[in-house]
Specification:
The chain is α+β, with helices and mostly antiparallel strands. The chain folds into three domains: about 110 residues, Herpes Virus-1 (2-Layer Sandwich), CATH 3.30.40; about 60 residues, no CATH class; about 90 residues, no CATH class. The chain is about 20% helix and about 15% strand. It has six helices and 15 strands. It has a three-stranded antiparallel sheet. The protein is flat. The chain starts with 19 loop residues before the first strand and ends in a 27-residue tail after the last helix. It comes from Xenoophorus captivus. This is RBR-type E3 ubiquitin transferase. Pfam families: IBR_1.
Length: about 270
């Protein structure tokens, strides 16, 4: 491949490691049909891309907090999103990533993967980072403090103060001001509408993923569904049903049969397998 800037990336027509196709770019179907000199390569899922469109799409996923690269193209037979996951190795090669782009991708992928599989906070006693094993219990024991002080030290995962009150607890400890800021955000966030979905307005602008509880916002472009950046589950931002369930009585661009789900008053705990 070439080593030109992103706007000038071109596939090498003599590269025998790729499958070139004579059809429009599936990631950017509205791109100019006059760009005949810009070769399209076929991804492992069968959809056609250019290095520019692949770089742009995958970078946009990273910027949204997603490090798993899923194909957004619509399958002609089913009229559903492809959703195939491309490996970073495949993306790196077919997007013709520069050294700077590879550094950006790899640093962000590592950060997002760590955030998905591990949950750490600094102990208020010793400042050592502690991982919470039981995601339903706010009372956390620091083993480092226990070893140093020769006694049990527990702190609140929510307010980060020494634990006060009975345990275990999932809502708050007895310290003044111990509140769940995520729930408060869900309760007070502004409402929004979806220009592409007629009749949907006054929808909370921030939701907790119904699968893992991750806070997410919708960019209000395209359909009403969203893929959670942490658990990668697709759900309807409006009715909060998982996409397959929502589509039984609705579609990507028409109002949900159950209307807009009310503001959430609890946050799901992700039961990772």
């Amino acid at each position: 491949m070439s080593s030109l800037g992103q706007d000038e990336k071109r596939y090498d027509p003599l590269d025998t490691t790729m499958s070139f196709v004579d059809r429009p770019d599936d990631l950017d179907p509205l791109s100019s049909e006059d760009e005949e000199e810009c070769l399209r390569a076929e991804m492992s899922c069968g959809h056609a891309v250019t290095p520019q469109s692949l770089t742009g799409w995958c970078r946009s996923l990273l910027d949204q907090g997603q490090y798993k690269f899923r194909c957004p193209a619509i399958n002609e037979d089913t009229q559903e999103k492809c959703g195939a996951i491309w490996s970073y190795r495949e993306v790196r090669r077919l997007a013709d990533l520069s050294a700077e782009e590879m550094e950006y991708f790899e640093e962000n992928m590592a950060r997002l993967a760590a955030a998905e599989y591990q949950e750490f906070k600094a102990c208020p006693g010793c400042k050592t980072y502690v991982e919470r094993k039981n995601l339903t219990n706010l009372c956390v024991r620091c083993l480092v403090c226990a070893a140093d002080k020769k006694k049990v030290f527990q702190f609140c995962w929510q307010c980060l103060k020494p634990w006060k009150g009975p345990a275990p607890r999932s809502d708050r400890c007895d310290n003044d001001g111990c509140i769940n800021h995520d729930l408060e955000l869900l309760r007070t966030c502004k409402t929004t509408s979806f220009p592409q979905v007629r009749g949907v307005d006054a929808c909370p602008s921030i939701r907790a993923c119904p699968t893992c509880g991750q806070k997410v916002e919708h960019d209000k472009t395209g359909c009403k569904n969203i893929i959670c950046p942490r658990c990668q589950v697709e759900f309807c931002f409006v009715c909060l049903k998982l996409t397959p369930e929502c589509l039984k009585t609705s579609s990507y661009f028409i109002p949900c049969s159950d209307g807009v789900a009310p503001r959430q008053t609890s946050i799901p705990v992700w039961r990772r397998k």
